[in-house]
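User
New here, help please:
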Amino acid sequence: KYAISDYLKEKNISEIILYGLGDMAKLLFWELKDSEISILYGVDRIITSFYDIKVIQDLSCINKDTLIVVTPLNETGKSIIGNLTKQKYTNTILLSDLIDKIAQKV
C-alpha cells in the first residue's frame, strides 16, 4: 500500500502544516497520525481546536520552508495558494494535487 506518508518521505518531508481544518484535513490527520510525518500546525480562520494539533491564524511564526498542505477543494484552495504565494510561502500544495501525485505512483 502506497500512502501519503510514503510520498512525503520520498520527498524528504517530515513535517507539514495543514491549511484549512475541515473534513479533508480530518481525513489527512488520521492518515498521517501513526506515520513518521508530523503535523506542526493547523491553520484556520474559524476552527480553534483540532485534535492535538496547535491551531494558528497568523503564519508569521512558521518556517517558510515547511510544506503547507491546503485542504479546501476547488477555487477556494487555489485562492489560498495564490494568497500564500503573495506572502512568499512557496512550499505549498493542494491536497487534491498531492493525491493526484500519489495516484500516478500506484
